[in-house]
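Weekly modeling sync, notes
Attendees: S.R. (lead), two postdocs, one rotation student

Agenda item 3: backlog of single-chain predictions. S.R. asked that every request posted to the team notebook include the full sequence so nobody has to chase files. The rotation student volunteered to paste the first one in as an example of the format we agreed on. Action items at the bottom.

Example entry:
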Amino acid sequence: MTLILEIFFWFCIGLVVYTYIGYGIVAWVLVKIRKVLGKQFKQYNDPSFLPRVTLAIPAYNEISCIEAKLKNSYSLDYPADKFEVLFVTEGSNDGTTEYILSNLSTYPTMKLIGGATRRGKIEAMNMAVKTIESSIVIFTDANTNLNNQVIKNIVRHFQDPVVGAVAGEKRIETEGSEAAAGAGEGLYWKYESFLKKLDTELYSVVGAAGELFAVRTKLFGEVEKDTLLDDFMVSLRIAADGYRVIYEPNAFASERPSFSIQEEMKRKIRIASGGFQSIARLGFLWNIFKYGLLSFQYVSHRAMRWAVAPFCLPLIFLLNVALIFIESALIYQLLMFAQITFYILAIIGYYLENKKIRIKLLFVPFYFSFMNYCAIKGYLRYKNGLTSGIWEKAKRAT
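Predicted structure, as returned to the notebook:
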């Protein structure tokens, strides 16, 4: 019995370590092997390749940022005759639609889809794509700012006929006095960016950030209206059809962090709930014999982070307690001390975050614990059927 507990204990630790650290190491080694064997993917960067592009922006009640988004969109470096902006404001009742209408004469290439009924972001995307004639559509959120070269840096990848989508980078704009929620979120996305770079060099990114991603218009398949992670589903289905999804770090969308840890928690729980919904709908991707590297990347980078590691953590703690009582070995005592210390630091980090006190040392234990707690809450929400394609927007810091 003790041996079984010990095996299970170390197995759970191994799963957590692999999920957060091991996969990155394995991917890095595989990328190095590809380079040694000369099997790197060809890079495309022809400045004369300038296809028609539509910037599609779902904008539900975004009056607080719509002026800045409009100005930012039309300041991007791309030929005006090959670029249009499409806002989808269905259901907005705060003046967003009216503001865009008042600027149609100023921006003749701007288009608007309105309507009185709010159907959710994914339905807005479904409606938008049906009206788009350009070969490439770039989706971006209304509350983000894009860098000047974003379109050129994205479209160059579509010279490769095997590329079906391009994922931009999400950047969190934090200040020196920012709360731990924002700082932790920023650290998380920096690590994610590193993994996405490895994913691209290995084969394909497994999921794009909804703040900025582009697809070949003809490859966009209409997504179920109750979908929570539209960006993830769209990009993974394109990858499953045999196309690569490329990560482009020099195309980025910047946004402020969540207003508070409570707002960030709402967002993370909903994302986790969408993760479990996606796992259920993408079950075919577990077939590594059919999808090869894509299956390996999907399971290692995404599925395990949502469905395995968060549930291993409480098991590790409970098994550690049991093993101490059974044989009281020094190694298990030290591991229990390490766990308790880690979670105490996380609790202190949470307390100080609410006091707006920023201590970098506490970011990692706090945000790591926070993410996994939200993943478990997201699973419970998914199992209870509390899913809807209509988002309750998280407030962002000003």
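Discussion: group reviewed the output briefly. The radius of gyration is 22 Å.
Action items: rotation student to repeat for the remaining queue; S.R. to check formatting next week.
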